[in-house]
Amino acid sequence: MSAQTILVVEDDREIRQLIADRLGREGYRVLTAEDGRAMARLVAREVPDLVLLDLMLPGEDGLSICRRLRAQGNVPILMVTAKADPVDRVVGLEIGADDYLVKPFDPRELLARVRALLRRASGLPTEPPRRRFAFAGLVVDLDQRQVATAAGERVPLTSAEFDLLACLVAHPRRVLSRDQLLDWTRGRMADPFDRTIDVTVSRLRRKLDLALPGTADAVTTVRNGGYLLSADVEPVR
Length: 237
Known about the structure:
With 237 residues, this protein is an alpha/beta fold. The protein is 41% helix and 19% strand. The longest helix has 16 residues.
């Protein structure tokens, strides 16, 4: 069976090559283009099985290219961008993208999304996305909104505490400012002078430490920066 072809449209040469190398090691045939014109020349010769499309490109932007590709056919489109604004995600999906991935991303997540889109396009059963993650001996279930030790002991968190932990787990080893955490956990209800994030972090640490001594240290305060989860996060089957 011939290898499936993935077209990577990315203007950053280093990122383009990294993605191409990783997909190539997984057995995919990879084509690359630095902009919409180069992509058009490749697509004119053959239709790829999937297009991995950067949103911010020189000349014609990714949204315009996505709209044009969708008008031409049903090739799966995975949009990749450094813009994490939910509005960009909604617009991208509405004009025809099949999925959306924000940079920087874990290469394993990229592969999982590529495989899921290719399975969906081929009509094969798709696997549900992994929604359980482990760090420092704890397991966070985003669907059930539960946290437990590896031994199965539940950690009783409030909704606000769980939402905060979910944000940290989704962005491990990345400093998240108080404003970001407020926006993601409270949205329009957020007050720029609200200090509840600090209180919630304190309560979260205390409960984590009661459930599994030492885990509170994973939630680290960064002076004048915010907070980060300093532990490695791994998906759990």
